[in-house]
Design a protein that fits this description.
- By secondary structure, the protein is α/β, with parallel strands linked by helices.
- Helix content is about 40%, strand content about 15%.
- It contains 5 helices and 5 strands, in the order E-H-E-H-E-H-E-H-E-H.
- The chain has a 5-stranded parallel beta sheet.
- Helix 4 links the parallel strand 4 and strand 5.
- The protein is globular, with a radius of gyration of 13 Å.
- The model has no long low-confidence stretch (mean pLDDT about 95).
- InterPro entries: GlpE_sulfurtransferase, Rhodanese-like_dom, Thiosulf_sulfurTrfase.
- This is Thiosulfate sulfurtransferase GlpE.
- It is found in: Cytoplasm.
C-alpha cells in the first residue's frame, strides 16, 4: 500500500483499545509535552530513523498532528516507506483532547 487512510478520533480510540497500534505524534516538542495520547511516539526528523527501525511495517500507525492537516503528508510518507496500515487522524490532537483521555509529561 502506498496510500494512507483517514481515521476519526472515535475510531482511533477503538483501535487503541482493541489492538496494538502505534500513535506517531508529529507536533512540536512543547505541544507534545503539554499533552499527548498515552503511549504516543514523538515522531520528528530527529527520531524518524529510530522509529523506522523499531516499528514493524505491518503494525498499524496512526499519525497525529494539531488539527489533522500536517499528519496527512507524514502519513503518506510512512506509507511510501513501506508501512502497510497508515492512518491520519482527522481533527488531530485538538479534537482528541475534547473527548478522550491524554497524558502530559511530568516536566512540562
Amino acid at each position: 500500500m502506498t496510500d494512507f487512510h483517514h481515521i476519526s478520533v472515535a475510531d482511533t480510540a477503538t483501535m487503541l483499545a482493541e489492538q496494538d497500534v502505534i500513535i506517531a505524534d508529529i507536533r512540536d516538542e512543547q505541544s507534545f509535552a503539554n499533552g499527548h495520547i498515552a503511549g504516543a511516539y514523538h515522531l520528528n526528523n530527529g527520531s524518524l530513523s529510530q522509529f523506522m527501525q523499531q516499528v514493524e511495517f505491518d503494525q498499524p500507525v496512526i499519525v497525529v498532528c494539531y488539527h489533522g492537516n500536517s499528519s496527512q503528508s507524514a502519513a503518506q510518507y510512512l506509507a511510501q516507506q513501506g508501512f502497510e496500515q497508515v492512518y491520519s487522524m482527522d481533527g488531530g490532537f485538538s479534537e482528541w483532547q475534547q473527548s478522550q483521555p491524554f497524558e502530559r509529561d511530568n516536566d512540562a
